[in-house]
Structure of Copper transport protein ATOX1:
Amino acid sequence: MTKHEFEVAMTCEGCSGAVTRILNKLGDVKFEIDLPRKLVWIESDKDVDVLMETLKKCGKEVKYNGTK
């Protein structure tokens, strides 16, 4: 599985909780959230566009930083 890094404009535990909920619904992904650095790492075989659109559902600005 490929590990992707995204920057998500999270400011609080509520924001990271929203990201956790939407990623859990996606299924077949492993992820880590670094709230202070506003980073989310997702391990998945899903297309980057699918991951990006899923993250945008939390209502925050999302930027793709590439693979890690």
Q: What stands out?
A: The CA atoms of residues 13 and 35 lie 8 Å apart.
